[in-house]
Amino acid sequence: MIGYNTTVNIRWADILRTGARVLACLLLFAAPLKFGIAEAGIGVDMPKSAGEFIFFSFPNTIAHGMIVVIGILCSVALLTGKREAGGGVAFWAGAGWAVLLVGMLWADRTLPPEWRNDDIRTQFVVYGVWFLCAATLFADEQAGRAAAVCVILGGCFASITGIQQSAGVLAATREYAAMEAGFANFTAYTNHLFSTPIDPQTVLWVKKLTSDRVSGTFIYPNALGGFIIVMLPLCAAIVAGAPMRLMRVLGGMGFVLGAVALFLSKSKASIAIAGVMLMALIWLSRRAGATSRRTAVVAAAVCALVAAAMLAGGYGARLDDRLRATGGARIEYWRAAATIIGKKPVRGWGTGGFTRLYPLYRRKGAEDARLAHNVVLNLWTDYGLLGLLGGAMALAMPLGVAWARQLRQRSALPSAPVAAQGAHPAFSWLHAAGLVAATGFVLHCLVDFDFNIMGITVPALLALAIASARQNPTTPHAR
Description:
The structure is a single chain. Helix content is 74%, strand content 1%. The protein is an all-alpha fold. Helix 6 runs antiparallel to helix 18 (454-468) and helix 13 crosses helix 14. It is globular, with a radius of gyration of 23 Å.
């Protein structure tokens, strides 16, 4: 009787886990298409029908609900079946998300009620739930590969949208904005705007409208670049290590489309980080003996040359000026953030602290900004030392464990008979790609605010969960 009940419980656990995986894969596909904006309703009119409400309104809220359901299914599956979670790494990362939440609540207690933003706390809570679910659902190679394919498929559509923008959609958007404002064309619209005193946000709006940089389904070109940093290593892993031809074709298609969209975004940091992370993936594969020396050298050289060509082709002779302008703006953000932190380093200023205080501490003539463009400084400014500690536990700890595991694999090279059979006990393209994708995400968070955008963070936390999971004993060599 006991054996029969155990069998039934495990079967129910498998059903629940499968349902959670299916819903999680839908979320991963939708993430770059649906959740690429930092706030609900930006640039979108109020919906007029139920279908428009579902498609256009409160996109982050839809993702929150999906993650809550996934979390419930995972929890019930773990209670009714055998434990398959990601072990100590997932536990300590989950503790980090909890510490971060405590820091947020403590810092926000100093704010007037009208300044508190429960939506931001909710988003950080669901980030933590999502990471733990991803560590539970996608720890094995086959499930992780299916999840990566979903990210790539959504990324293909996001990249195609960016390519379409460069082929005329951006021009149509400018004319649409002018018509909505009541002007015959975009020139008349901008002439009107600049004929009267305008605020910094209006200047920023006009700059973005007149720019030829594409953003795809994301709100900013840099956000599109941040997502593609995560997407490209996953594409490379599928091309190199997936057993099915269709998967490899999809991975190659996603890589090409993502690279083209990255070039059109003209996101300088994203191009540089993506190139370095792909070279890191090649180095890891060569270090583990999964790639020949000649192949590794050629592939790394191609990555470096293509990244340099993207930077030069996007800006030409203006590249040096743009690098100085972008770098100078970020240094000013960071200087102001450091000054604000110095005023209240332990508890922080509460949600939106940098946004409220930056106008008081920025230098005259500095660019307007809502966030510090650095996740460490932003967490410290808003949520003090607890926020900083929680963020480090949630991101840096699993990333460090994953790098330590990956670097230890050099001593586990296969013997000649094992290699002859086409098996390799130490290297997994998928785990290595997840590692460099998550690392690239964290690096980009140090110069931008990807952490606030679910369309980037959800795939990135999946990559981190895959990277920090224990690998299968053997995985096939790349073809």
